[in-house]
Amino acid sequence: MPSPPALRLAIDIGGTFTDTVLVDGDGRILATTKTATTPAEPALGALEGARHALTAASAAWNQVGGFIHGTTLATNALIERRGAKVGTITTEGFRDILEIAYERRHSQYAINLEKPDLIVPRTRAFTVGGRMNARGEELVPFHESAAAALARRLEADGIEAVAICLLHSYANPAHELRLREMLRMALPDLVISVSHEVSPEAREFDRLCTTVANAYIQPLMSRYLADFEARFRAAGLACPILMMTASGGMTTLGTAARLPVRLVESGPAGGAILAARLARETAMGKVLSFDMGGTTAKLCLIDGFRPQTARKFEIARAERFIRGSGMPVRIPVIEMIEIGAGGGSIADVDRLGRIRVGPQSAGADPGPAAFGNGGRQPTVTDADIVQGLIAPDGFAESRISMNPDAATAVLKNEIGDAIGLDPDRAALAVTEIVDENMASAGRMHAVESGRNLDDHAMIAIGGNGPLHATRLARRTRVRTVVVPRNPGVGSAVGFLHAPVSFEIVRSRYTTLESLDVDAINGFFRDMANEARAVVRAGAPDGPLTERRVAFMRYHGQGHEIEVAVPPRDLEPPDVDGLRRAFEAEYRRQFGRTVPDMAIEILNWALYLASQVPDIDPAHAEPAPTAARPAGARKILCDVTGKWREAAVYNRADLPNGARLSGPALITEPQTTTLVSADFDARVDGAGNIWMTRQAGALP
């Protein structure tokens, strides 16, 4: 008899908890677990979670045939500035690319403007002679003698990693390759990132920043990935480990170690993938994904069953909602807004007597005061406990014992006494602030994307997402909230639905009128071969999906729009097709086209991916049945602000078709869903919880 399909394991290491999901070969979830993250050695918490999951499923390591891992380590290292000592090498005459940046202030009238920290001070910025033009033609030969002297400077200054970004290397990387070769011979231990591999696009400042970010975290991530693999191999894992990327795909450990900047935001990407899949399964065309964990909250818009994507985002903004106040990184990424609002977000009172929540977090160590692990500052979780929204017993699968008295004490001492509120009202104030912070971020994200949240449904995941979803929905005028199965480990579940993929965006300037079809076909073939080598390392067999894009604009414009390119060799008649597609998309975005204006193409992209599991068929709507509560508890109602009794339901006991009205709490091992007093809830045929705002509720 053939052996049963291998099991698959997914692990998402967050700032507070590590989520683990084990599924069988047919995609059925066998076990899930949530363990405390171990910041000093993240692999230890991951191993603990994996062992719990395998034990719960009565499975062994040799049965695991697929392993996907996502982590916030790359993101946190960049935000917390815990990377290597980095130097830059640019073309002679371009030493001050980082200092000049965009030649503008992100806040025009701020007297005490805080400029973005771009990691590398001018004292560690070096140059080398030689120059290419935008067509990749050598204008000045490479200065090899200067490069040899440069190696001595790097060694003398104690540089651990270097970011090489030479002018127009995306068109011809010969000088970058020669410089890397010489530095490796002189300094074998030096970590080197070259811009034509990290971000082969025009725009020197963005390309240099991306290469700096990659070099900065490369030593840390290389050590981490090697340690992670070694620990799991020693435990008995035999299959390859694949890493989740920011674009929503998976890649190999080797690629991740070479391009760790692509791991930034890899964990949250899993939540967006799960939300997009659920949107397709339930035919929801417009969705807001809401993922609230212990440290951050992430919101992502999903239209037409695909998460919104971008080619650029900013790290560690000095001003949370102001573009240009952070470090730009130019990589393919699922576009979402992330703010410091999680269960561990710390609340305090500023000198003006205002309550602030986040972005600082108590994390996994010491955690909220109620954890009894030395936390002395009130957090969002402490506030939820005081309001009766989290049952002290059973939290985090009963692995963490809760002390409600400690939560009450810190809210009284740190918030209530400072502004004259009793602990109950202080707790309510903290959750009101954090919910409004998240709602403001969601509204801002929607406006910037040209969307209106009124016609979107919300999909809530994460350890705290279902608990805060109805409160967030009310503030954003969203009327429907869906909580999928296993929401507390939603990002890890999303990993299991992701393809092995790789995306390349590369600059090659041309106008549409002078487009050389044969040259572009060769250009795409080179990109396809590069992407295929990465994808096949993680998915050796099976068909691949290819998507091609041209980034086009009218002559003189500063930014481009995406236009789909046929995934095959182009032919001369396709040029007119590209023109029509560009004009249609331009008209959709801006309401009109510009007649008699030349059309330029600056960048080209190729996306290659393995096939993903099929979408589950739609389930028939079950007959309605009244849900039976397992008990009741007093909660501080988020609608009236008064204490009232709420029914408590065990999610595992709710049959498909169950109906109930708020206020109610639906508990499960890894999270609690709050059905607010102005919402009704039902369970559909697939076990998802649908919460709908009651007719007549105030908007």
Describe what is shown at a glance.
This protein is an alpha/beta fold and 699 residues long. The mean pLDDT is 89.
Query: What share of the residues does DSSP label as strand, in percent?
Result: 25-35%
Distance between the termini: 60 Å
Mind telling me the C-alpha Rg? 26 Å
Q: What helical percentage do the residues reach?
A: 25-40%
Descriptive overview:
The chain is of the alpha/beta class and 699 residues long. Strands 13, 14, 15, 20, 23, 24, 29, 32, 35 and 36 form a ten-stranded mixed sheet that branches. Strands 3-2-1-4-11-12 form a six-stranded mixed sheet, with helices on both faces.
Fold topology:
Elements lengths: L6 E7 L3 E7 L5 E8 L5 H15 L7 E8 L1 H8 L5 E6 L5 H4 L24 E4 L2 E2 L5 E3 L3 H13 L4 E5 L8 H13 L4 E4 H4 L5 H32 L5 E4 L5 E3 H6 L7 H16 L4 E7 L4 E7 L2 E2 L1 E2 L2 E3 L11 E3 L3 E2 L2 E3 L5 E5 L5 E7 L18 H7 L17 H16 L3 H26 L8 E5 L3 H12 L3 E4 L6 H6 L5 E11 L5 H22 L5 E11 L6 E5 L8 H17 L8 E12 L14 E2 L4 E6 L6 E8 L7 E4 L2 E5 L2 E5 L3 E5 L5 E5 L6
Parallel strand pairs: 1-4, 4-11, 5-6, 5-9, 9-10, 13-23, 23-24, 29-32, 31-33
Antiparallel strand pairs: 1-2, 2-3, 7-8, 11-12, 13-14, 14-15, 14-20, 16-19, 17-18, 21-22, 24-36, 25-28, 26-27, 26-28, 30-31, 32-35, 33-34, 35-36
Helix pairs in contact: 1-7, 2-7, 4-5, 10-11, 10-12, 11-12, 12-13
